[in-house]
Amino acid sequence: GAVVSQHPSWVICKSGTSVKIECRSLDFQATTMFWYRQFPKQSLMLMATSNEGSKATYEQGVEKDKFLINHASLTLSTLTVTSAHPEDSSFYICSARGYFGPGTRLLVL
Amino acid sequence: GDSVTQMEGPVTLSEEAFLTINCTYTATGYPSLFWYVQYPGEGLQLLLKATKADDKGSNKGFEATYRKETTSFHLEKGSVQVSDSAVYFCALNRDDKIIFGKGTRLHILP
What pLDDT does B43 receive? Predict the structure, then answer.
């Protein structure tokens, strides 16, 4: 079946640094990918829609300058958390065609 | 806009009990419907899906039927096991964008 990968699976960083998370579709092309965020014991919140060749579409309340999304190719989307702070610590998950990546756990110290 | 509502948890049952987790949706048209499961510390796994009205999705003893008349997609299992303890998310797919319910935490006691 279709597989979506994410890298890294875990990242710990210092406050103020930027972190890049990659999402790849391994055996299919995806012009659209989605980024979600999940806080502990909560549901997944859609952050943004990543569009190949155009700007990402952000959900209400999500800071686009904070969470930079680049859909570099038909198989790769990246989410960069800029100037990360402890409140950005969360579980970030991408999806494409309804298939989900394994998630990236971010801890900002 | 589209939304999914599922029963609040946590739900605690004894092993071999019957399980129902209610899910209703609000959407225009007939989106595909899903149940996902998330085990502690892990990512999401697709449990089952249904793509049109009256379809029944099933997997690992779990079942859900797409009911357009009641806009529901309730999850059921006849005999739960301790290993079924997890969080279950009902969701709909609108143009590959997945919209989730809030999740229902299930605890199965031995």
Answer: 84
Q: For residue B62, count other CB atoms closer than 10 A to its CB.
A: 20
B44 touches chain A (CB under 8 A): yes
The winner for highest mean pLDDT among A69-73, B38-42, B62-66 is B62-66
Q: Which residue among A49, A98, A102 places its CB closest to the CB of B43?
A: A102
**Chain B contacts of A44, Cβ < 8 Å?**
44, 89, 98, 100
Scanning A39-98 for CB atoms below 8 A from B yields 41-44, 46, 49, 93, 95-98
Flag whether pLDDT at A99 surpasses 90. no
**A18's tokens:** 């930027």
**A77 HSE (CA, 13 A, CB side):** 32
Which residue on chain B is closest to A48 by alpha carbon?
A: B97
Residue B106 main-chain phi, psi, to 5 deg: -115, 125
Q: Between chains, do B96 and A100 touch, taking CB under 8 Å as contact?
A: no
Measured distance CA(A75)–CA(A33) in Å, rounded: 9
User: For residue A2, is pLDDT > 80?
Assistant: no
Strand A104-108 with A10-13, pairing? parallel
